[in-house]
Automatic annotation (TrEMBL), chains A, C, E:
Signal peptide from the UniProt entry: none
Domain (Proliferating cell nuclear antigen PCNA N-terminal) ranges: 1-124
Species of origin: Dissophora globulifera
Gene name, Swiss-Prot/TrEMBL: POL30
Annotated function: This protein is an auxiliary protein of DNA polymerase delta and is involved in the control of eukaryotic DNA replication by increasing the polymerase's processibility during elongation of the leading strand. Involved in DNA repair.
Name of this protein: DNA sliding clamp PCNA
Gene3D superfamilies given in the database record: DNA Polymerase III, subunit A, domain 2
Lineage: Eukaryota, Fungi, Fungi incertae sedis, Mucoromycota, Mortierellomycotina
CC terms in the record's Gene Ontology section: PCNA complex
Length: 258, 221, 258, 221, 258, 221
């Protein structure tokens, strides 16, 4: 049996917005550690891993592991019925036919109760090895979203080059070419806007912009994003939350020079 | 977890490929565009409810003979494969079963291998008549004969993939490649690398995009 | 002859927005009491009754009753040309071929004058009897709009249950089910958000959400809405304005259990 | 209020219905999709301007004879109902007139009842040829033969409904149901409940939605 | 060689928004005087003349006249990648194959560099004679935009009548008719909202609203607009910027009385 | 500025117009929908690269003879105008050249006038077969025979207009209207006012909208 109460419903709403474009159906794997989800997108090009740790809920109770098969579009529709300040409680019993959602608004004594039908979902769990990445860039999540959106004007692909001076995003297409360079810095006015780089080795990798733009739907979850890269290994784009994270993995594009 | 069984028949035919060499092809059927595993491809499969209805057995597990009969009836009824009833050139093997765990049910796939060695004789369901076949399949089912290599790039549910692994293990155990005996051509393995063959791809990717599951291996949950 | 001057044009703009989706053409019945409109929607499922009392205008003059047949879409297009702070004057003479609208903006000496062609409209006036309703719910109009919009995700119909504890809106569909309950309360922070219930008898009725959502286009006209219900009698949804009201009537859905 | 007159002809035919029993049907014409009463259905109607043009009378009111002639000419020209000129089986009655007040004009509907007792003889305008009729109606007019029950659910302007009430009152006054005399079947009233028959519905409703005018009765204004 | 640095990128973004709907491709004619553009719209009904004077840039350098053939839609796409506060530098060398754009954001050390491919464009330069107009109306650019938008509800054409009392915009169509009159005034609260008229002779001219509405895309460039009119001569609609202008010319409509 | 040359052939035929009078028509070809001057109409034009390829001359300027040969080859290949090779009734004139300055190149248009006096003999490319012609034009090129008046309202690039002015000057210089000699009809000038004929209109305007370039004359830059 699952019972998980979240003080700010907005968090769950944003989480769903961050994954529902990539994944249609997925299992929420509930255990005493929290609620996790791992799924490939429909085209098997990207992998999403979500963790909402138990300590983000109050109370959190899950006696026995439970996989809740959910259509994410439906769940996000129901969550749009929750106010941003509503307290959200998730419940499911072990028979697992429905997920109950309760939205409470203390201001005006409103209680909303929804029951979402669950589905059987063919689940395949991929093991993600610990990787020592060659380059890890930490930057403003808004800046990252903006760069991806801007370069999309020129091309479907972006080349990311990381050196110790900075990170450069470049694209080339029919209209012409463009690049955005962020210098490593730590003394900008707002710390959230700073760009920091951990580097073992320079990297130069090519990624699908369409997928990166999809990942940036998580921008609302965190002011910061980290990009972890090594040659011939999937890029890890991570948004950290107070009690959990959302991680996206995307393999570099092959056989294309920008 | 409740348990549900089904009968899967892996229908393989061997015929001259485009290069003149004998090629194995497997019959795949497309699932409906809605529901679980929508639009994916699977070997012809008879579900538990049909198995029970065919043999008036509401509760007891099915036998191989029953499943084999149901599968044949299914092939004849759905695809007008009447030749299957009279063809002398057919070998059938019980491959045993595999299981796949969905979130709330445990599904058991009983697999049977149905081999037509002289597949050119099965001329009127050849790939060339692909379109005609699709129409013939009265209930709007699409069917396709795929090589093992093509299977590797098709969108196939995990459970069905596992039955194909059963077949490959059976062939390996049998110690001799069946293709070989019939075609006189020596092959140690099926020509499709296992890791590729076993991986379902649901939709066409952009050029240059790699499958993320090439990087991360399935883990025991 | 009609001459009616309205200090805040925004009111008339909002009134048109509140009815133009339901009704295409209607007669504005002008008399010394004010301007009234009564019309069924095209499918004859809902009835709209509007009253703008004479004392809401300054000056108001109508010597002789006059029915002005107006295409409401056209009128709302013309009213969109009025600023929210414009003073609006309506004029029509007894020959009644056109409705004149004058929009005055004192800030920058702008005067706009429009003439809208009038139409002959087949008018049928329904008598609405005084009814003693079993349950009358008064609540925030925004809350009502939000509940209708939210539940629409699940179904085309909503079941409204009123007891002395509160009012419950419930819907059930393919995705699952949901309900929103508002407790009767009067000591919430903002009085406008309170929910009050007058009850002779519990009611449980089923309505088309599509129509209710259409009614909530009047939300801008009043912070409060009242829902008056009895079994087998049309629901009355009323938005009161300072000098008038807009009332919507909708019969319960038949033969459907939620 | 200015006054405008028009001539309405209620063309009724009686023929064997789908159940073998004689059934009355009435000819309805669809109004243009634009303008006042757009897309609603009415009995064939000749407007005042046409009446005046037909008889070179710019000002004086029309007589029943004039209106009857105009109506027949209209039916022949618009719908190619040439049979109406020679058919022996036609009864015509002046039903008198009703008025309807629009916001700025008072419209007078002069109604005539045109009954074809042996409507099977009017074969080539039967419902079965509905599509052909629609084409035949040169100027894009759609026509439809409706039973009284169907009339009750059609989108019909109030003024036209009033002319149908005239017909019903006439039949009641006549003391004998005309259908009866011709078909040998006894009916005290037309089979359509008055309140339903008289109510126009412009568009198809969602299931389960009731007409609001069932709850509120028309009031004198 | 061209090098032109603009402190506020927003200006260039707005300029492109103001012309890209009317003109697809055009030459930017760069000389020591600044950057100019003159082009007819595709239907040859309107003429656009843009000038960005050299003193609006710092530094500005252009040794030798240069015609840069640009697809304006592409340029506006690239400019949308510039922040409003970015410093924009335009560069082109005399071979003229590409236009380089650099966007600098000092706040967070971001530098974006784009290269836009140039085109050969068939250029035809029209000589615009100095004209002594009969009437020149100066008014709020927002008010002008609003009037054009409002009257579009009624008609495709607007008649502009200027007398010494004021300027009247009138339209007539199927729905009815409308007019907006602005009185000449100078003592309104905000000077930017005032309407002033220089008049030699009353004018009454008829113009296509579709084109005027297109011109009002320049509203963001200036709070004021001037309309200069004489009979049988194209209307001049001018938006003045600090260092330059954008001028639109449109011939009166022929053979139509409103 | 780099210089590019091309060969333009103004193909004119004279035939009986709809009013029975002899009418001159000119062959126009539509440019592709993409690229510079997209969708505009021009006289058949052979570009420099083709001229060089036709005569194996990478660098040297072309002669009139070479351009004339290339143009004829172009007309035969693109439009199947095989009659042009054998027709006795053709007059050809070198009209000289005009230049047009684009932003980065200077384009030289060498113009040739090809006149078919008895254009009715060129029956199978008549306007009546317009549609057939369009299909015949294998590579999707649209062609159209336009009168001088129609040329005045067509969307024609400035450079091509200049070649037409060359023709008009030539005819004026020649002192006699060629049309006249062949048709016996006296005309001092081509019937199209020069300012209208020379102005390209790319798209259909709203009614009542005047061309802004009627008000502002082209200026030397």
């Amino acid at each position: 049996m699952l019972e998980a109460r979240l003080q700010t419903g907005a968090l769950l709403k944003k989480v769903l917005e961050a994954i529902k474009e990539l994944i249609t159906d997925a299992n929420f794997d509930c255990s005493d550690n929290g609620i996790a989800l791992q799924a490939m997108d429909n085209s098997h090009v990207a992998l999403v891993a979500l963790l909402l740790r138990h300590d983000g809920f109050e109370p959190y109770r899950c006696d026995r592991s439970l996989a809740l098969g959910v259509n994410l579009v439906s769940l996000s529709k129901v969550l749009r019925c929750a106010g941003n300040d509503d307290i959200i409680t998730l419940k499911a019993d072990d028979t697992g036919d429905v997920l109950s959602l309760t939205f409470e608004n203390t201001d005006n004594d409103r209680i909303s109760e929804y029951e979402l039908k669950l589905m059987d979902i063919d689940s395949e769990h991929l093991g993600i090895p610990e990787t020592a990445y060659d380059a890890i860039v930490q930057m403003s999540s808004n800046e990252f979203a903006r760069i991806c959106r801007d370069l999309q004007v020129l091309s479907d692909s972006v080349q990311i080059d990381v050196t110790k001076e900075g990170v450069k995003f470049a694209a080339k297409g029919e209209l012409g070419s463009g690049s955005v360079t962020l210098k490593q810095n730590s003394n900008v006015d707002k710390e959230e806007d700073s760009t920091t780089i951990e580097l073992n080795q320079n990297v130069s990798l090519n990624f699908s912009l369409k997928y990166l733009i999809n990942f940036t739907k998580a921008t609302a979850l965190s002011g910061r994003v980290s990009l972890s890269m090594s040659s011939e290994v999937p890029l890890l784009v991570e948004y950290k939350m107070e009690s959990g994270y959302i991680r996206y993995y995307l393999a570099p594009k092959i056989g294309e020079d920008v | 977890y409740p348990r549900k069984a089904c009968a899967v028949s892996i229908l393989e035919r061997i015929r001259k490929g485009p290069n003149g060499k004998p090629t194995s092809e497997f019959l795949l059927v497309k699932r409906p565009e809605k529901g679980l595993l929508a639009g994916m491809w699977e070997f012809p499969t008879v579900e538990q409810s049909q198995l029970r209805a065919d043999h008036n057995q509401p509760d007891t597990p099915s036998t191989y003979k029953q499943r084999s009969e149901s599968s044949q009836r299914y092939l004849v009824n759905k695809f007008k494969f009447d030749w299957i009833k009279t063809c002398k050139d057919i070998q059938r093997r019980d491959l045993g079963s595999v299981q796949h765990l969905f979130s709330h049910i445990r599904k058991v796939y009983h697999a049977e291998w149905v081999l037509v060695v002289d597949g050119d004789g099965v001329g009127n369901v050849g790939r060339d008549e692909g379109k005609k076949n699709k129409k013939a399949a009265g209930e709007g089912l699409e069917v396709e004969w795929l090589t093992a290599a093509e299977l590797g790039t098709a969108a196939i549910p995990t459970g069905i993939n596992k039955t194909f692994q059963l077949l490959q293990k059976y062939k390996a155990r049998a110690g001799n490649d069946v293709d070989e005996s019939s075609s006189g051509r020596k092959r140690k393995k099926l020509e499709v690398p296992e890791d590729v063959a076993m991986k379902a791809k649901k939709v066409k990717k952009e050029d240059g995009l790699a499958d993320i599951s090439k990087f991360f291996k399935p883990s025991a949950k």
